[in-house]
Amino acid sequence: MVNLIKILKTIFPLIQLYPWGILAIVILGILASLAEGIGISLLIPFLQNLQSGNSLVINNPIIQNIDQYLINFQPQQRVLLLTSSILVAILIKAVLSYIYTALCSWLQNSTLHRLRTAVYKQLIAVSQSFWDTNKSGELLNLITQETYYSSQALSFLIWVIINLSMIGIFGLLLLLISWRLTLLVALGFLLVSVLIRTLTSKTQVLGRKYQQANIYLSNLTLETFTGIKTIRAFGKESYEEQRYYQASKKSRDSGINSAMQSVMIEPVSEGLSVAILMCVMLIAFYTQVTLPVLITFIFMLYRLQPQVQKLNSNLTQVIALSNYVKSVFLLLEREDKPYVISGNVNFHDLRKGITFDAVNFLYPSQNKPALENISLFIPKGKTTALVGYSGAGKSTIINLIFRLYDVTSGEIYIDNYLIKELDLATWRSNMALVSQDVHIFSSTVRENIAYGRPDATETEIVAAAKQAYAHEFICELAQGYDTFVGDRGIKLSGGQRQRISIARAILCNPEILILDEATNALDNISEKLIQDAINLLSQNRTVIVIAHRLSTIKDADQIIVLKQGKVEEQGSFSDLMEKQAVFHKLYQLDYQKTQN
Ligand SMILES: Nc1ncnc2c1ncn2[C@@H]1O[C@H](COP(=O)(O)OP(=O)(O)O)[C@@H](O)[C@H]1O
Ligand SMILES: [Mg+2]
Q1: Which atom of ligand 1 is nearest to the CA of 128?
Q2: CA gyration radius for the chain?
Q3: Does residue 411 sit in helix, strand or coil?
Q4: Residues contacting residue 286 through CB under 8 Å, at least 6 positions apart
Q5: Where are the domains of the chain?
Q6: Residue bearing the CA closest to ligand 1, atom 26
Q7: Model pLDDT for residues 8-40, shown as the tens digit of each residue
Q8: pLDDT at 231 > cutoff 60
Q9: How close is the Cα of 75 to the center of ligand 1, in Å?
Q10: Is the Cα dihedral 408, 411, 413, 416 positive or negative?
Q11: pLDDT tens profile 525-568
């Protein structure tokens, strides 16, 4: 019982989504049960009529009233009146139950839509660190599967309420027809329910096991999709296949186990109900209940029994599915999640530059800070290069400038404003990032270039592509700018993807250009082309560049050398070379590498 209250509490947020819809369904459900119950009750006078042609006065309040009314009619008319009333009552019930069933599926789909979009909105809104600490497969499972199961939980809950209202109304009518038999039956049903409850007590635990098995399976699937090349390269196909097989088997087994519990309900309750019916017949025989009353009673019981059975199975479903509702609403919970909250100062243009003042930063999933006591100044209109071994913290600095994360301590200033005071959208719209991992969306080349500026004209798009040295290869594609690329289209080479991303940046005409190892994955020829494009793009702009080939940053206005999250050296290329310290060593290493 306590468990049930807990489960209702879990599901309560779902009910709050469409309270009126649920109320309407419940009212319609009650009215439908009433119509059916009255229709069936009318069988008593009808049968009495058949039996004797006269109406017998029975010790029964509803029937008495009906009988008093019917006494004014001829027996023939009475039969006609009764049969047509029964027909009308059943028709009303059919129409009402059609309406609430339709309403129920509307409600389930609308709830699913609301949950899904709310989860999506939340996933977009939470800060990057949330994505770092959660598995994408789990999130994918949550947004596709668990929202669906949650909406199902709501439907099952509504069915539970409808079952309950039908049981309540039929129970009341049965009481009026024969309270002795009804009490006996109620006791019987109660015993059956308790028995079933104990049989299915493990349902929730099994439901959770099934959920976990599915999450694991989703993770594995996503990992295979993204890592298929690595899997092939290491000849791990059969290993992965085996792993997938085991995971799928586990999901199958727990799915079967969980279903076994719920399907047990039907035969058990059906068998026991027949036993109850037998008792009713025996008692009726010994207490001399009249035939019309007995027939009506049994008929009503016959209609009621499936409701009791459905109540049990629907309740079991609600309990099993409540796990999903819980995870969905845990994700939607705002309090315990990291957010990067936008400031309200609209950013127009950079006047002086970007200042880091004693910045420390620790990724939430790490225990060693990625940046320690970083103080630096990135002047407007100049090119600043960040160099250092991989893992030194270069990309982390970029992440902080983009405000994908907030600093752990220290401050970042944009001119005289704290970065937190700036409106995120206007701040970010003044920057463009070209990095080594370019994402190409599944759409046309044109849409990919115009991603940051969907309003760009054809001439602007082509001009940007030309500047990025991309126009030529785009024209050679089968449908030119209309060629589908990305996941569902043709695959582009690393250099081509890179040039598209540069065209994307050029089109935005950003005030601040950030290049994070933009030419890392390229061959020499592509790199030369892209370097030319970048040089062109860098003119009269604030540029922050991270380059693995140090010869490309010779002309940078300042070079900042990072080592293990700290600033080691700072100065112009010639300064640093003269100093013959860290940068000099890095440069020598790099030079040797390019010579080989
Ligand atoms: N998203 C992340 N979550 C946790 N740790 C990270 C994340 N990104 C980078 N790191 C860690 O922070 C440190 C600096 O990384 P990064 O800034 O990417 O280095 P660089 O760009 O100089 O190669 C590394 O130790 C890296 O493991
Ligand atoms: Mg990096």
Answers
A1: 1
A2: 36
A3: strand
A4: none
A5: 12-332, 343-430+513-521+542-596, 433-509
A6: 391
A7: 888 899 999 999 999 999 999 999 999 998 888
A8: yes
A9: 92
A10: positive
A11: 777 777 777 788 888 899 999 987 888 888 889 999 999 999 99
